[in-house]
């Protein structure tokens, strides 16, 4: 009978979820091996909407609703919310799935908001609830982008009260323009596709300066008609494109000549785009741990990944996280700095738990410093900051066996608490064999005298062990 009950329970249990490749890239599994899963660190996933939540839970990609907490600051659409363009969205659900993949023991608190007012109320609620880590993968395109805007101040306030705020730097590397517009206006060419919905924002630093952004469409008579313009929030409403030729005009209407940043939610700026300074807000906040994007397979930052400096000259992002991952098999290839941010928030929960377990300080500044210290340095520091986020910073252990004789079969076995990437065998400086995974066996021909054998073993988090041995044959 017990067997039958067990069988019934197993067949009605949710299917096992898929785990993001970014988990292994960061070496989160090395923490799991020590029993660290984030159980001591609740994580708030703050987003605009959590569509598809029930389906995700049913698929085993999120815990049951009874073991999560939810809170909505969208009075119209509730937790389901709407995205920046007013559409239905599953964005928050994807982000929660990633945090859950990285830190499966962390209690998830799903919080959504509709706009700036809702964002500020959500931040206050998160701080009052004592949640130590926030994953926020969104940007607002109305500036300033110098860390002094309303959202940035809310984030700074949360950080000052003990919250590690992890924020996407944004996907605006090719959707950002910077220039000094005159009172007559400066044109920014755009080529939207029919069916696309556009939205834009702009920002500047400096008291007394005012600027406006116009969205214009070409008329049949060759003149330009205004379709939309930025409002006091320094954003345009969404504009649906039904064909035709379009352009933007950015115009300074008051104050000194200062650089103005223009951001686009969807259409790219092509050759007119400026990658530098493409961090929107609140990724610009001093109190934000801002995250750029690198494919989990590589080390080069994605072209779209926003990079600093901020309008006031500070470097951002602070680090990068893995992206283009699958955290739910129905949605392969979740991309952008969004996915990277959720990975880093999950990693923060694991690292905080480790610090608690070892009696180390677990406050926001100690935690932030350790996350940055553990990052794997990459090229292009302007786009990658301290480097690729990782949990595992321990090198693999390597066992190398070289039997006697002139033509021995050399055996290598690497062990690691994380996941092994590859082992490589060199003889007298030449690569003899490279194998994915932890083991390698290779017959080698030894020459008279001294032979140098070298093994390199690398885990997926990029920690490399090098073992060298000299063998002499006569
Ligand atoms: Ca998953
Ligand atoms: Ca390792």
Q: Could you walk me through the main structural features you see in this protein, from its secondary elements to its overall organization?
A:
With 474 residues, this protein is an alpha/beta fold. The protein folds into three domains: 2-173 and 277-384, Rossmann fold; 176-272, Mitogen Ypm (Jelly Rolls), CATH 2.60.120.510; 397-473, Immunoglobulin-like (Sandwich). It contains ten helices and 23 strands. The chain has helices spanning 2-12, 21-25, 28-32, 53-58, 91-102, 116-128, 150-160, 336-357, 364-374, 381-384; strands at 43-47, 69-73, 108-113, 133-136, 164-168, 176-179, 186-190, 197-198, 200-203, 210-218, 224-229, 239-240, 246-254, 260-264, 288-295, 319-323, 397-401, 409-415, 420-427, 430-436, 439-443, 449-459, 464-473. The chain has a seven-stranded parallel sheet, with helices on both faces. α5 (91-102) packs parallel to α8 (336-357), α6 (116-128) packs parallel to α7 and α8 crosses α9 (364-374). The N and C termini lie far apart (70 Å). The structure holds calcium ion (CA) (2 copies). The site of one calcium ion has 8 residues, from α5.
What would you say about this model in short?
This protein is α/β, with parallel strands linked by helices and 474 residues long.
Lateral strand order in the biggest sheet:
2-3-1-4-5-15-16
The pLDDT mean sits at 95
Q: Bound compounds, please? A: calcium ion
Distance from first to last alpha carbon: 70 Å
Number of helices: 10
How large is the radius of gyration? 26 Å
Which CATH architecture of the largest domain is right?
Answer: 3-Layer(aba) Sandwich
Q: Sheet bearing the most strands, described?
A: 7 strands, parallel
β-strand amount: 25-35%
Shape from CA axes? globular
